């Protein structure tokens, strides 16, 4: 089964080897047919601590690395 790949912006890099990535997507409202921005935050593994706040990154699914981390930065 292929692994999902998402693109988002780093919003926090305070933890060691971890970044928090905010992924935004556009969905259409079922009744009003207008597009709404929805976002979700993912904790991703960053082994070299090379990404900082504001960077645009791609993340990929991986095996669980901790309680919250199920993604890794590509």
What does this structure look like?
With 74 residues, the chain is mostly beta strands. It is 0% helix and 53% strand. It is built from no helices and 5 strands. The chain has strands at 5-12, 18-28, 35-45, 56-61, 71-73. Strands 1-2-3-5-4 form a 5-stranded mixed β-barrel. Strand 2 and strand 3 form a beta hairpin. It is globular. It starts with a strand and ends with a strand. The model has no long low-confidence stretch (mean pLDDT 96).
Task: Label this structure with key terms.
globular; 74 residues; 5-stranded mixed barrel; mainly beta
Task: Describe the protein's topology.
Layout: E1 5-12, E2 18-28, E3 35-45, E4 56-61, E5 71-73
* Amount of beta strand: over 45%
Rg over alpha carbons: 14 Å
Work out the helix count. 0
**What pattern of helices and strands is seen along the backbone?**
EEEEE
Number of strands: 5
User: What general outline do the C-alpha atoms trace?
Assistant: globular
- Give average pLDDT, whole number: 96
Which sheet architecture does the biggest sheet show? 5 strands, mixed, barrel
Instruction: Please bin the fraction of helical residues.
Output: under 10%
Concise account of the structure shown:
With 74 residues, this protein is an all-beta fold.
